[in-house]
Design a protein that fits this description.
Bound molecules: 1,3-dihydroxyacetonephosphate, iron/sulfur cluster
Number of helices: 15
Distance between the termini: 43 Å
Number of domains: 3
CATH class of the largest domain: Alpha Beta
Largest sheet: 4 strands, parallel
Helix content: 40-55%
Number of strands: 12
CATH superfamily of the largest domain: NadA-like
Strand order of the largest sheet: 2-1-3-4
CATH architecture of the largest domain: 3-Layer(aba) Sandwich
Radius of gyration: 19 Å
Length: 308
């Protein structure tokens, strides 16, 4: 339920963003009201491309820190604001530059593919980035006999490896929210809703991905649910996506695989913080130029490989 206070905040946000020409980009895991007033809502790949194509010189990114950082890396002449710079992704922070250095020492001809859920310093030492929407497409284009270190999400890595029947070296990390979902959860939801299709994010464990009718990014799930003839879907990712799927498919039934599929960092972004950020132009996100230049190569390569 939207409160009168929320409505006032949204009106004020819309007024100020128009007055100051600020483009708001949000992720599907943000709160419903944030998705409703953003100029653009997308998965992490689409958010990065939207930042590059932003019609405004100032961008506010409603998402966790690596999403704002990606925008800052790709848009050095634009001001990128984060309404809550402390909102982060624990999985992204689990890998260190020393892990990459060790791999490079052991495999001088190897390639490092980093999920976009990484800090700028990791992107800077990676050969190419990927997101859940393009990881298969990108790795498919890499030389077949080359050793690949896929960081940091071993579940996404596992999914890519099984799709391409190619072995990858993984880093032992994963998303605490997605990895909580078990095979038993899906069996239970399917028993309760036998006609529902199962849509799974590839950050889930392989046993769960194996039970899916569709595996893909948040934007992929939204697109799949819109074109599928099914009238019910079991959603196996963070619950925020339910709002956008519901808006696009008002007659379809959505069942979240578990009630606790909530990313607390994403939910730490609020209308109040966005309004403060727009009024005070806070907090600008910057990346040291030597890191930014190297990280931009890995991100631009991702965009090039996923567009062809
Ligand atoms: P998407 O790129 O699929 O939106 O995923 C981002 C993310 O953080 C998933 O947990
Ligand atoms: Fe990170 Fe998981 Fe939150 Fe996505 S849902 S931002 S992977 S903690």
């Amino acid at each position: 339920m939207r409160t009168a206070e929320d409505r006032l905040l949204m009106e004020e946000i819309i007024r100020i963003k128009q007055e100051k020409s600020i483009y708001i980009i949000a992720h599907y895991y943000t709160k419903n009201e944030i998705q409703d007033m953003a100029d653009f809502v997308g998965d992490s790949y689409a958010m990065a491309v939207a930042a590059k194509n932003s019609p405004c010189d100032t961008i506010l990114v409603a998402g966790v820190d690596f999403m704002a950082e990606s925008a800052a890396i790709l848009c050095p002449t634009k001001m990128v604001l984060s309404p809550e710079p402390k909102a982060t992704c624990p999985m992204a922070n689990s890998v260190e530059v020393s892990h990459v250095s060790k791999f490079r020492q052991e495999h001088p001809d190897g390639l490092v593919v980093s999920y976009v859920n990484t800090p700028a310093a990791i992107k800077a030492v990676s050969d190419i980035c990927c997101t859940s929407s393009n990881a298969v497409k990108i790795i498919e284009k890499l030389p077949p006999d080359t050793k690949i270190f896929f960081i940091p999400d071993q579940n996404l890595g596992n999914y890519v490896a099984s799709e391409l029947k190619r072995s990858l070296e993984f880093f032992p990390s994963g998303c605490p929210i997605h990895t909580a979902v078990t095979r038993e959860d899906i069996l239970q939801r399917k028993a309760e809703h036998p006609s529902a299709q199962v849509l799974v994010h590839p950050e889930c464990i392989p046993e769960v991905a194996a039970m899916a009718d569709y595996v893909g990014s948040t934007a992929g799930m939204l697109a799949y649910s819109s074109k599928s003839a099914a009238d019910a879907f079991i959603i196996v990712t963070e619950g925020g996506i339910m709002h956008s799927i519901n808006k696009a498919n008002p007659g379809k039934k959505l069942i979240l695989a578990r009630e606790d599929l909530v990313c607390p960092d994403m939910k730490d972004i609020t209308l109040e913080k966005i309004l403060y950020s727009l009024i005070n132009l806070q907090t600008p996100i910057t990346v040291a130029e030597d890191i930014r230049v190297k990280a931009a190569i890995a991100l631009e390569k991702m965009i090039e490989y996923s567009s062809n």
